[in-house]
Amino acid sequence: MKKFFFVLLGSFSLATAAHAQPGGGGFPRITPEERAARIHQKLDSAFKLDPKVLANLDTALVALYKTQEARRQELMAGGMPDRETFQAEMKKFSDAQNDMLKAVLDKDQYEIWKEKIAPSMRPQRPPGGGGPGGGNN
Q1: For a surface tag, which of 104, 115, 126, 137 has the fewest beta carbons within 10 Å of its beta carbon?
Q2: What whole-number distance in Å separates Cα of residue 49 and Cα of residue 45?
Q3: Does a structural domain hold residue 58?
Q4: For 58, which DSSP code?
Q5: How far is the first Cα of the chain from the last one, in angstroms, to the nearest whole number?
Q6: Is residue 8 part of a domain?
Q7: Cα 1 from Cα 3, distance rounded (Å)
Q8: 49-62 pLDDT, tens per residue?
């Protein structure tokens, strides 16, 4: 439990240090609150965790996602960053999310999360790549 609160405190520190920049984006993004709610629902239905633990996790995830969005905006403000830099920055947030989940799930639950639940939550791409000129025309 101490580990979870340490991660929670670190997330709040990151969120406080980051400042969001307005504007940008060609399509609406899912809000941090919606992202946290999706994870909450999946964890609750799969593992029936203590509501207090889930509430603390929700708070930490929302703070993390807000910080992630602010960093994404910073990276995109100067134009499109190179792929490796962008992926490395976003991986830091993915790792932080995994650490938060490890703090509230036991080892077996975390393995189930990584192998079965998390892959089902990834956005599904349409056939043919989904972008302009991405299909077999």
Answers
A1: 137
A2: 9
A3: yes
A4: H
A5: 54
A6: yes
A7: 5
A8: 899 999 999 999 99
